[in-house]
């Protein structure tokens, strides 16, 4: 069951997984009961640093607080998805948390917490223009979920000049 | 932010519940183990609402089954963070199998009518002619349908929008005029509209005449039962007809409620109106006869591509009635079964929808989103289903029984998308845009029409590089005049099961070529009136 739905990420992901030489047992799930696991959080925190670069506060302590709030919002966004979507996301995060999977799917040689914003962004640019659907799909999933969680919050609206709903 | 709506604006749903409406499921109490009624309607959107009003008018005992929650004006706070998870299928993130198209579909009482942008068009005559010629729908003529549309328009207050268009829409008119292209006003289903622009998050003032505030309350006042947060799992089929419907209580994200028992609904007749992905999926899970392998096939989306423009002045595309002007110029510039035509409209923009739909990341994205107040958007609805190279998509079931749509974006569709990018950029520059950016991973912000034209002609038009979205799912349970061509007959009744009807957008044998809500209303009006007559011998009307 686990392996069958993993294959639904696409032929590309299946091939990558085979290349990575990993059985499903070697992978830590990205979600548990619909919530991000520690390994899932590590991926999404690094994704947020790269996708939201230019929108996050620059001061270290403020940025840490913003990333922590981002992960909390993301947890709520993910919890609202149906089980089938959560299962795919959990598997995507599992592949990305594994060293071999990260290198093959994201093309990132440095582990997520240690990777610089520039390294992650370069990896994302390769992913989104990749000829392999699985790499493009992974980029869209990471990027869109990050933006959905971030820009849903009123604190991000001032960055866009959006005044919020008109009072009624 | 606290809601002020409860104190200032009457809430028709809360009042109805206080009057004693029969609503069960979720916070409204557990479902009974067994329900017997005359007609069970699956869904509560455009087709279901019209059907429920007419059947209850005929004196029939009706039960509506809705997977989403019952929300209303007091809950609608114009917040994307609340609206998408509670009111949309898959949290507004429903995607096709290859993830190349994002689909916006309602999942709440009122269905997509609760969250749509109010655009109301009758089915175009060219579309009806195609159905007559190719699908044997000989009585689907413009003249025969006109009274059914007129009644729906009267019942739902569909009429011209007399308030000036917002600047987002004015760009379409201004650019089209300079290029000698026709543009016109869109009719809307509103009464006392506040011109807020947040229709996609549910109407906080009850101005939008969705099923949530019109037909569903009428049916509930006439004694209908509404089951919410309840999934229609499968029909029990036997002896050549549907014997029962089995349902399960579900949580907000669609997961079955732990330990809750299923409900069995026994009815004389069943009407499927769950939307054009969920309706075929329900029939597939139920194993209904499908001798010609048509079920879930030819599912259409009006695949949409988007062009974003930046102006020197503020556009504030979030503010004011969302879609009020359109151009059909590029639907009429070639034959309906020729290269794919497209309808142009100007969509509303809010932070989540714009940040997830536009492309890029990092500083480039931050810079793009800083221009949000000056950003204008056009969209092109590609008219799919009229050409041999446009067979649409196929609904499939996942291991857990939930549906997923496989919709390959082939070269024929992507040729239409490229021409649409060109048309939209030309219109935006003609209206004075400083920069135009087709929503494509490899596009940049172009500063002149000549530059944009050259760049768009060279863009690789591939899925996942081109951002494609859809809010119009149609087909999959097509009606046709011949059994070999359709899942249901022209009267909406299933070709093989006489006590099963389909009354939603899944009926359409092609896409509509216009925003489909009024097409669903008009057709459902006709079919439900016929169904009421066949079940009761009574002639009922949507309006007197």
From TrEMBL, chain A:
Question: Domain of life, per the record?
Answer: Bacteria
Name used for this protein in its record: Uncharacterized protein
UniProtKB/TrEMBL annotation, chain B:
Matches recorded under Pfam families: GMC_oxred_C, GMC_oxred_N
Domain (Glucose-methanol-choline oxidoreductase C-terminal) ranges: 393-524
Record keywords, A-Z:
FAD, Flavoprotein, Oxidoreductase
Show where the Glucose-methanol-choline oxidoreductase N-terminal domain sits.
86-304
> Its family?
Belongs to the GMC oxidoreductase family.
Q: What name has this protein been given in UniProt? A: GMC family oxidoreductase
Q: Which organism is it from?
A: Piscinibacter gummiphilus
